[in-house]
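Annex B.
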Amino acid sequence: MNNDIERVLYSRDDISKAAHRLGQQLTEDYKDKKPVVISVLKGAILFTVDVIKEMDVYAELDFIDVSSYHGGTESSGKIDLLHDLSTEISGRNILIIEDIIDTGRTLKYLIDLLKQRNAAEIKVCTLLDKEDGRLIDVKADYIGFAVPNEFVVGYGLDYKELYRNLPYVGVLKPEVYTDK
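Hypoxanthine phosphoribosyltransferase: predicted structure tokens.
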């Protein structure tokens, strides 16, 4: 797998430091709020685990799975809800944890869904923010790293369900995902 990576953007140590920094900020911002932390599957699971271990607050954890990439390198624009929440969120403070915000379509879909379900407050924490890829005006409240407009994998992010288990975030070599 490592041979498919053009370059490493964020090492395991970089990510650990970001999770610690964000966890400390979330501890301060969510004291006495008892948030529902919603991890967006599958990509955000590793980041979610690292961030919540750094949070010293009472919090519930739930998962939602949506897909817009459908195995490709670009968002299809169509959002599919693959797995819904099991927690009642009406009147609750919600913290969405994402692996990456790219076009913004998925995040907008999630925020709209949670608003329809009467969440009291919705905030977003993301490992990666790819602002150059943004098509929809959405913003994260907590950001690990800004990322260039390149196809990145690792630490939960995938290409055709592969590379999620890399302990870092790297740029995938174009020859891996383009026609030869």
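The beta strands are 5-10, 36-41, 60-67, 80-83, 93-101, 121-129, 142-146, 152-153, 169-172. The first helix runs from residue 12 to 30. Further annotation is deferred to the next reporting cycle.
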